[in-house]
Specification:
By secondary structure, this protein is mostly helical. The protein is built from eleven helices and three strands. The chain has a single domain, classed as Rhopdopsin 7-helix transmembrane proteins. A three-stranded mixed β-sheet has the order 2-1-3.
Length: about 325
């Protein structure tokens, strides 16, 4: 019922915003500058990003398929991981195709509606991943600190709630951002100094004062970052204390190894986000902003399945079994 209310409210808000801004957006076009300042690098960059996107799609969809196919992986940890893989796949598919297109064509225009839509879905993915990583930290806390009660505590109902909450909150945040973004006035054709319709780049080309929109996204982004990091930090403090109290070195190693992949993903994701917070959006810093944006929109969705699969014995075992089955079937066919 709560999800139904959120979706119905969000749809109503979107309809109202659309009606209010329908006339304002007429004739507005954006040009995504991307990496057009480096014409000699267009083809090499295209090949690099195409390779990254291919690995990202295969890795994330493969991770989802492996988790579904292996009953041994039907646990809360892998339930959260499958949703993280879905978010990463969706995120890279929102951003990368347009990036690849703009590296090949000279016409880098994107409509006002297209730019706003890309920003909307990108917001959903970023906020969802932020709190999905926090939910996974709580799962690791229960697994390490209360292993005997893990199955009871991490019930199916709680797991679905911990997954539904990030999606729902991300939807609410995205509509609030869009609402205040659409209160700005945009005119004519404007050049966005980025490869993606990111908030700071959009408000930079606004023909009106963007203060309200900037403050809203700053408040919400700060709240999301601090609250999610607080959950993660608290969970891992308890995990560290519990692990250090374990008598056997083997037990400590096993406990730390189960958290290593998650800690790596957290460090990369939040490290990049915090770096972007610290970079001022001045003319001289836009290249740094683009590189950091590339990292968390294109590279991180590729890294997450690699991080979790390379360090995970169960996932590697499932892949080996699937490959052995495939080769056996091919031999019997021939």
């Amino acid at each position: 019922m709560a999800l139904l209310w959120i979706f119905s409210t969000a749809f109503s808000l979107f309809y109202v915003v659309h009606r209010i801004t329908q006339n304002q957006s007429a004739g507005v076009t954006f040009i995504l500058l991307g990496f057009s300042e480096y014409p000699d690098l267009q083809v090499p960059l295209f090949l690099i990003f195409l390779t990254i996107y291919t690995v990202s799609v295969l890795g994330n969809l493969g991770m989802i398929a492996i988790i579904r196919l292996n009953p041994k992986l039907h646990t809360p940890m892998y339930f959260f991981l499958s949703h993280l893989s879905f978010v990463d796949f969706f995120y890279s598919s929102i951003i990368t195709p347009k990036l690849l297109e703009n590296l090949l064509v000279e016409d880098r225009r994107i409509s006002f509606a297209g730019c706003i839509t890309q920003f909307f879905f990108a917001c959903i993915c970023v906020v969802t991943e932020t709190f999905m990583l926090a939910a996974m930290a709580y799962d690791r806390f229960v697994a390490v600190c209360n292993p005997l009660l893990y199955t009871v505590t991490m019930s199916q109902k709680l797991c679905h709630l911990l997954v539904a909450a990030p999606y729902s909150w991300a939807l609410v945040c995205s509509f609030i951002f869009i609402y205040f973004l659409l209160t700005l006035y945009f005119c004519g054709t404007k050049v966005i100094n980025n490869f993606v319709c990111e908030h700071s780049a959009i408000v930079a080309v606004s023909c009106s004062d963007p203060y309200s929109s900037q403050m809203i996204i700053l408040v919400f982004a700060t709240f999301n970052e601090i609250s999610s990091l607080l959950i993660i930090f608290t969970s891992y403090v308890f995990i560290f204390v519990t692990v250090m109290r374990m008598p056997s070195p083997g037990g400590r190693y096993k406990a730390f190894s189960t958290c290593a992949s998650h800690l790596t993903a957290i460090t990369i994701f939040h490290g990049t986000i915090l770096f972007l917070y610290c970079v001022p959006t001045t003319k001289s810093s836009w290249l740094m902003v683009k590189i950091a944006s590339i990292f968390y929109t294109v590279v991180i969705p590729m890294l997450n399945p690699l991080i979790y699969s390379l360090r995970n014995k169960d996932v590697k075992e499932t892949v080996r079994k699937l490959m052995n089955t495939h080769f056996t079937c091919r031999k019997s066919w021939f």
